[in-house]
Design a protein that fits this description.
2 copies of one chain form a homodimer. By secondary structure, chain A is of the alpha/beta class. Helices cover 41% and strands 17% of the residues of chain A. Chain A contains 8 helices and 9 strands. A 7-stranded mixed sheet of chain A has the order 5-6-4-3-7-8-9, with helices on both faces. In chain A, strand 7 (148-151), helix 7 and strand 8 (172-175) form a beta-alpha-beta unit. In chain A, helix 2 crosses helix 3. The two termini of chain A are 28 Å apart. Chains A and B meet through helix 1, helix 5, strand 9 and helix 8 of A and helix 1, helix 5, strand 9 and helix 8 of B.
């Protein structure tokens, strides 16, 4: 892999490539051309080749890309396949939905615990994950290193939750609250914007474009 | 507004512009240059100008864009501000989280009802929204036109839910189940990929890039 800096735009396309290659692998497809990828993913073929070139590429003229090899390379670049420990701040519907959602554990993400301020929830377990009081986050982290803090609080509590995580030295934040939080330099952040895709859907309802994969 | 076809890539950037301009408006900022937008949004300034040109643009050399005017234009293009009626298939955590999530109602989305197969849930109400049996979707839609079907079922039931919606002539599907569904021609679809942003976060954990807005 070349050690070039990968642009933000490419980084955001990597998960899409990764999912796509995973699907191909599961279907037993061994190689794929940039042309077929282009039509399946609704991306320009030369853009795909440029993207894949960013990290060394593996395409061969007239042969295409080896599905498994390319998938494994993207997986490595994304840092998947490692183990990550996460905690969820906010044990309401979003927090609970996230625990159920994706078989995160299978992918190497261990959601170790939930934190909330609702006394009725403290001490309970949800799918084997204990719910602690938000005030005990520091004590918990002192004993159990945490890689990722997931914010699933209501809007008004989100920045406070981010501050609490940073105060206890959590270096990556995945924010599901419907408001952007800000972080200090060095802390990695992804704000999730669920409504963005709803807006895109509305655009499609009002315009006769074809549906994207 | 020019009636040019807007590319997929631009369509996917529109919600980001919309959110950003909304924030500026709330902060009382009246105009904005493409340079400032560029640094705030981590997008190339000439790309921003090209994007905004796609729908007529409003930038003036040395003045920039009028925030409210541009926001309203993007809102119109996205088809926001209209009224949409939605139903949720799947009344579990994801479905319940979505009802709570965003003040969708305030934005013109009326989530009218939920549907599930779990007999224990049927007939109950959640935040004033009634839960019906999935088998009654057709009868419900015959009486209450539905614009958007939201799939919040487990993975295994997602395609069946999509089929059911299409069978009853729902023309837009917002899929939250952790598996892509496919739709027939003419049906608009957005598959939500929650884990994509987790993958991007993992990339950031493993690479010293700056955090994106």
């Amino acid at each position: 892999m070349k050690e070039e800096k990968i642009s933000e735009a490419v980084v955001h396309r990597l998960p899409k490539y990764y999912r796509y290659l995973n699907d191909l692998e599961q279907k037993g497809i061994e190689r794929i051309s940039s042309w077929k990828m282009s039509s399946d993913l609704d991306l320009n073929a030369s853009q795909i080749r440029r993207d894949l070139n960013c990290f060394g590429g593996f395409g061969q003229q007239g042969y295409g890309y080896q599905v498994i090899k390319l998938k494994e390379e993207i997986k490595k670049i994304l840092g998947l396949g490692k183990k990550y420990t996460a905690v969820i701040l906010g044990a309401g519907n979003i927090g609970q939905a996230l625990i159920n959602y994706l078989g995160f554990e299978k992918e190497g993400y261990n959601i170790a615990a939930l934190f909330d301020v609702n006394e009725k929830l403290i001490g309970k377990e949800f799918h084997g994950k204990k719910i602690f009081h938000m005030n005990d986050l520091g004590a918990y982290i002192a004993e159990n290193p945490v890689d990722i803090g997931i914010i699933a609080t209501p809007r008004a509590a989100a920045q406070q939750a981010a501050n609490l995580l940073m105060q206890h030295n959590v270096k990556a934040i995945w924010n599901f609250a419907p408001v952007d939080v800000t972080v200090q330099k060095g802390v990695k952040l992804e704000n999730v914007h669920l409504s963005d895709s709803l807006y895109v859907l509305c655009y499609r309802i009002n315009n006769e474009t074809e549906t994207e994969l």
